[in-house]
Specification:
Blueprint (H helix, E strand, L loop, with lengths): L7 E6 L5 E2 L13 E5 L40 E3 L1 H7 L3 E6 L9 H14 L4 E5 L3 H13 L2 E7 L4 H9 L3 E5 L3 H15 L2 E2 L8 H16 L5 E5 L4 H15 L9 E7 L4 H8 L25 H10 L3 E5 L1 H15 L5 H15 L8 E6 L21 H12 L1
Parallel strand pairs: 5-13, 6-7, 6-9, 7-8, 10-11, 10-13, 11-12
Antiparallel strand pairs: 1-2, 1-3, 4-5
Helix pairs in contact: 1-10, 2-3, 2-6, 3-4, 6-7, 7-9, 10-11
Length: 406
């Protein structure tokens, strides 16, 4: 067993608060997710590492040293001011945290970087994940970097570029005729019999720690915290990670002002968390017949549902369901207004902002951060059919352009 990990003191159940040591473990005996807890007394702003990636925040991450880090350059993603969206939506300060800049093109790289680093440090050699797509390709990449074996089980309608990427990195890939819930059941059973360790969303405690770094980065990039964060939500690790970071920033004494309000956004075709939020329930019910163009939002039942709902309520936030057409339009707006290439899930965050502005919840003078969780290139956005013009020469092009200008 490796030596104790610095600053990481224990694992704690998010429901019954039972504590565990630092060992390979999935959920609590009560079945609920475990969260990493730290001794923060020795952590200062000066103790942060002189790096520009996720691992700048090593003192508040579970990995003990830079030597134990498995990295492909994740984190340190840009925070982009969106003047076009500000003008169009009538909000003074809108930013996008663009997670498409991560390895494998999505924010899933953050979680897998930390999960794989910890797995290797704890002596694990075979990792498995059920995935709607991007978590699987991220695990494949980091397992390859770490020299570990990766098993991915995904719905058969996962976008082909994501499946090709997963295979490219050498993972064993199997498809199921169903959703990520069916994939999850298969992975759980397989792990019990074959020696693979399950790193499913919220089923192990360290992927959320990688997502947590988004909150620390946001704090440093803005010089504080915004009024609102708007996050597209399927399994919920992004929201849980942000809320965990915001609370740790307060515990560290680095942030003393109001906490950001969290708006989680789901697809109207699969919105179990929004339905539970609106009904005042503490947990969600499985969504029947989930359907959406955004694979990352097609999660009928999230293991971390209680934590997502708690984060939204404790922050005085909300949950929003948006139609697929609204996501498509928002992807186009991101590109046309501010030159940002967003995935459908990222489009959901902008569609959610429109709903927040229309309802009066977001005020003109507030600061809003939207999250684009990935690149559009892995689930290509089909343009509307149109007849493209041809030219035979430079003179013909010049004549056309002068005609347009006239």
């Amino acid at each position: 067993m490796p030596p104790p990990l610095s600053n990481l003191s224990r694992l704690e159940c998010s429901a019954c608060h039972r504590e565990y040591g630092i060992e390979p473990r999935n959920v609590c005996e009560c079945g609920r997710p475990l969260l990493a807890r730290y001794d923060l007394a020795s952590v200062t702003r000066e103790s942060l590492l002189p790096r520009r990636d996720l691992w700048r925040y090593l003192p508040v991450l579970p990995v003990s040293s830079e030597e134990r880090v498995v990295s492909l350059g994740e984190g340190g993603t840009p925070l982009l001011r969106c003047a076009g969206i500000e003008r169009t939506f009538g909000v003074d300060r809108v930013f996008v945290k663009d997670e498409a800049a991560n390895p494998t093109g999505t924010f899933k790289a953050r979680g897998m970087a930390v999960a794989v680093s910890m797995a290797k440090g704890l002596g694990l050699t075979r990792l498995a994940v059920p995935s709607a797509g991007n978590a699987g390709s991220a695990l494949a990449a980091y397992a390859a970097k770490a020299g570990l074996e990766a098993l991915v089980v995904a719905p058969k309608d996962t976008p082909l570029p994501i499946l090709q990427e997963t295979l490219l990195f050498g993972a064993r890939l199997f498809l199921v005729d169903g959703t990520i819930l069916q994939a999850g059941d298969i992975v759980k059973a397989a792990c019990k019999e074959t020696g693979f360790f399950n790193v499913a969303t919220m089923y192990e405690p360290y992927r959320v720690e990688g997502k947590k770094a988004m909150g620390y980065e946001l704090f440093e990039q803005l010089g504080g915290l915004p009024d609102w964060v708007v996050f597209p939500t399927g399994g919920g690790t992004g929201v849980v990670g942000l809320w965990k970071a915001f609370n740790e920033l307060r515990e560290l004494g680095w942030h003393e002002g109001p906490m950001p309000r969290i708006a989680f956004v789901q697809s109207a075709g699969c919105a179990p968390l929004v339905k539970a939020f609106e009904a005042g329930k503490e947990a969600s019910d499985p969504w029947k017949n989930p359907a959406t163009i955004a694979p990352g939002l097609r999660v009928p039942k999230a293991l971390g549902d209680v934590l997502v709902l708690r984060a939204a309520r404790e922050s005085n936030g909300t949950g929003i369901a948006v139609e697929d057409d609204a996501m498509r339009s928002a992807v186009s707006e991101f590109a046309r207004l501010d030159g940002i290439g967003a995935c459908y899930e990222g489009g959901a965050s902008l569609a959610g902002l429109r709903r927040l502005v229309e309802s009066g919840k977001v005020k003109r003078d507030e600061t809003v951060v939207l999250f684009n969780t990935g690149t559009p290139l892995k689930n290509p956005f089909p343009p509307k059919p149109q007849k493209l013009s041809t030219v035979e020469s430079a003179d013909a092009l010049i004549a056309r352009l002068k005609g347009i200008a006239a």
